[in-house]
Write a structure and sequence with these properties.
The complex is a heterodimer of chains A (about 290) and B (about 350).
Chain A: H1 4-31, H2 48-55, H3 57-89, H4 95-107, H5 110-121, H6 128-134, H7 146-174, H8 179-186, H9 191-202, H10 204-218, H11 223-228, H12 240-250, H13 254-288
Helix pairs in contact in A: 1-13, 2-13, 3-4, 3-7, 3-10, 4-7, 7-10, 9-13, 10-13, 12-13
Chain B: E1 2-11, E2 14-24, E3 27-32, H1 39-47, E4 53-58, E5 61-62, E6 73-76, H2 88-98, H3 103-116, H4 132-145, E7 150-154, H5 162-176, E8 182-187, H6 190-196, E9 199-204, E10 207-212, H7 214-219, H8 224-230, E11 236-242, E12 247-249, E13 253-255, E14 266-272, E15 277-293, E16 296-303, E17 306-312, E18 323-328, E19 334-336, E20 342-345
Parallel strand pairs in B: 3-8, 3-9, 6-7, 7-8
Antiparallel strand pairs in B: 1-2, 1-4, 4-5, 9-10, 11-12, 11-14, 12-13, 14-19, 15-16, 15-18, 16-17, 19-20
Classes of the chains: A mainly alpha (about 290), B alpha+beta (about 350).
């Protein structure tokens, strides 16, 4: 009788195999071929693509750049999102208006917003440099100098995704019980101490969740880079996703891009697991000690 | 000494505190009143969690502008309030650390207190892993460990079962003995209030009706409102019209004039406690409801339109709707004038 349950599971398992397992296994197979525009098809190239990847400094640089970009933008998004959520958490005037206003960037299409930001950053035609000139800072080479271009990508990412962090953290704040705050007041904790000893630790679990979701998304940054800088100047803003896109879709090196993708998948899975464990220790268990 | 002067708090037109002036000395004072009487608001005002007008002074220092965290008070509420993200030991250490104690020293003091309340074994558990009684014991221990000169207890045992409540009440009294703390204990239960307090304050509708030693307050509630608050089961109120020669009780009819002491002609209200209505005699009533609680029976009677409540110190069976003959003990009656103030005690046996 209990075997019947497998019949009910079968449709789900078939979808899983078709949607996840087959593409993954196929990618593994492709990564061991040298499938490209000159040799289309599944030949057997052994580990040649992986050996090439090991020597490919551009890939590892992109990975390092992506790590830097992800960690810095997600951390800034967390701090800003938390600050904004705290701002509209309690009773303030026009609280509903601000809650909606803060969510607007998240609701816009990344590609469209990247185009708009590219216009804003445009060194001669955009509105940003005249403003900087007017306040005495002076015009900046936003998209033509590596450091500035990297900062531009960061700004757009932070602008676009801070609202997501804000939304999750505000939901977390609104779900907090009010009683510990009453206890903290009577126990002698002022507003800052209450935040550090009550709000922040109680937000540990949701903070970890929000950071991880954003870290997973940030590790796939693609549209912003594609539209804003196209990875340039040079390769200074090239991320892993964009580099894999260049190799796979522009150069049609299918076998090589499969090897890059798989390695990237494994590195991300390991890195995000380690980050999740560290965050759990730091923000959930550690904060409670 | 903690003194309150003309504390008033009105929200949305509803008076929560209506000009309360009281003084609290070290020892246990009970605030007794029904739900909505203003007990919790008064405790919150003392803790700084509500902002009434008027003045709160402690040993001469004006607290009116002090934030809650600057006031040397500890508070336990009827909900089991603890820090859900901290274990039991750190819950107790929290107020000590806020006071500036080092973590290790605070934990040591907290461990001592846990031993005193019998929770040493639970030190590493989270509050959510404890029973309701244990959670409240943690909250009480957290309040006590501060050693604050003022301890506010807002019906701390109301959500506990009877046995646990009795046990914890005794434990608390033992812990507080000779502590020199000013303890203010809010309760809706007259028996608890009269048993626990060195002093009792009767409250209703945001006002302090009467205060004093529990026995004195119970023996002579100064107003009808006070008589209502201090009695459980509810006090029997009988309207009476007195002239020089006659006495007519509302619903019950004429009665011998000498049932009551000499009084000027007028209308009066007689307050008779439930235990002062006894079986036997000549007053015919009908049983409207019988409540057996523990070893006591409270019977609600209808005497020709006059509701009466009778308390018997035994388990008694009175069939609903059956007739019952009772005697009001007018000797024990409290007599209130038209303004609701106590003017005389006792008549003669009816």
């Amino acid at each position: 009788m209990y075997r019947q349950k497998y019949i009910f599971l079968l449709p789900g398992l078939l979808v899983l195999i078709a949607v996840i397992l087959f593409p993954l296994l196929f990618t593994i197979r492709v990564s061991f071929s040298s499938w490209d525009v000159y040799n289309p098809g599944l030949n057997n190239a052994g580990g040649a693509m992986y050996a090439r990847m090991w020597e490919d400094a551009r890939y590892w640089e992109a990975l390092w750049r992506l790590s830097l970009l992800s960690v810095s933008t997600v951390l800034i998004q967390y701090v800003l999102g938390f600050a904004l959520a705290l701002l509209v958490w309690r009773e303030i005037a026009a609280r509903r208006f601000f809650r909606v206003l803060f969510l607007v960037p998240m609701m816009t299409t990344p590609v469209v917003m990247s185009v708009i930001w590219r216009t804003i950053f445009h060194e001669s035609l955009g509105p940003l440099n005249p403003i900087l000139n007017a306040i005495g800072i002076g015009a900046q080479p936003w998209l033509s100098q590596p450091g500035f271009a990297f900062a531009a990508v960061m700004i757009v990412e932070i602008w676009q995704w801070t609202p997501f962090m804000f939304l999750l953290l505000l939901a977390g704040l609104l779900s907090l019980p009010s009683e510990p705050y009453l206890a903290a007041k009577v126990d002698g904790a002022g507003p800052i101490r209450t935040f550090l000893s009550v709000t922040f630790p109680m937000m540990g679990a949701i903070s970890v969740g929000a950071i991880l979701i954003r870290a997973i998304e940030a590790s796939k940054i693609m549209e912003t880079v594609y539209v804003l800088t196209s990875g340039g100047p040079g390769t200074s803003t090239e991320t892993v996703s964009y580099y894999i896109y260049i190799r796979g879709m522009r150069d049609f090196q299918i076998g090589y891009s499969a090897a890059l993708s798989l390695t990237y998948l494994i590195i991300m899975a390991v890195a995000l697991t380690l980050i999740a464990k560290a965050l759990m220790r730091l923000m959930v268990r550690g904060a409670n000690a | 000494m903690l003194s309150l002067s003309d504390l008033t708090l009105t929200e949305s037109g509803v008076p929560h505190l209506a000009g309360i002036s009281l003084a609290f000395r070290p020892g246990l004072t009970t605030l007794l009143g029904r739900t909505g009487a203003g007990k919790t608001t008064l405790l919150r005002a003392i803790a700084g969690l509500a902002q009434p007008t008027g003045q709160i002074r402690f040993n001469g220092e004006d607290w009116s502008r002090l934030a809650p965290w600057q006031r040397p008070v500890a508070m336990v509420t009827q909900q089991f309030i603890n820090y859900p993200h901290l274990n039991v030991l750190d819950n107790l250490a929290f107020p000590l650390m806020r006071r500036g104690e080092a973590k290790a020293a605070a934990r040591e003091t907290a461990r001592d207190m846990l031993g005193r309340v019998g929770l040493s074994q639970m030190a590493s558990r989270r509050p959510s892993e404890l029973s309701g009684g244990q959670q409240q014991r943690v909250a009480i221990a957290r309040a006590l460990v501060k050693g604050a000169p003022i301890l506010l207890l807002d019906e701390p045992f109301v959500n506990l079962d009877y046995n646990l409540r009795e046990g914890m009440r005794e434990e608390l009294s033992a812990l507080l003995q000779a502590s020199g703390t000013t303890v203010i204990y809010a309760s809706t239960d007259p028996r608890e209030a009269l048993r626990m307090g060195d002093q009792v304050v009767l409250m209703a509708e945001g006002r302090a009706l009467q205060s004093g030693a529990p026995r004195a307050v119970f023996a002579a509630p100064e107003t009808l409102d006070a008589a209502r608050v201090v009695n459980d089961p509810p006090v029997n109120l009988l309207g009476a019209a007195v002239s020089d020669t006659t006495l007519v009780l509302d619903h019950l009819g004429p009665a011998p004039r000498d049932l009551l002491p000499p009084l000027p002609p007028g209308r009066y209200t007689l307050a008779l406690r439930a235990e002062d209505i006894r079986q036997g005699g000549s007053l015919m009533t009908r049983v409207a409801l019988t409540e057996v609680s523990g070893s006591e029976t409270v019977t609600h009677l209808d005497a020709g339109g006059q509701p009466l409540v009778m308390l018997e110190r035994q388990v008694a069976e009175h069939a609903l709707g059956s007739s019952l003959v009772v005697t009001p003990d007018f000797k024990a009656a409290l007599i209130y004038g038209p303004d609701g103030r106590l003017i005389a005690k006792g008549g003669r046996n009816g």
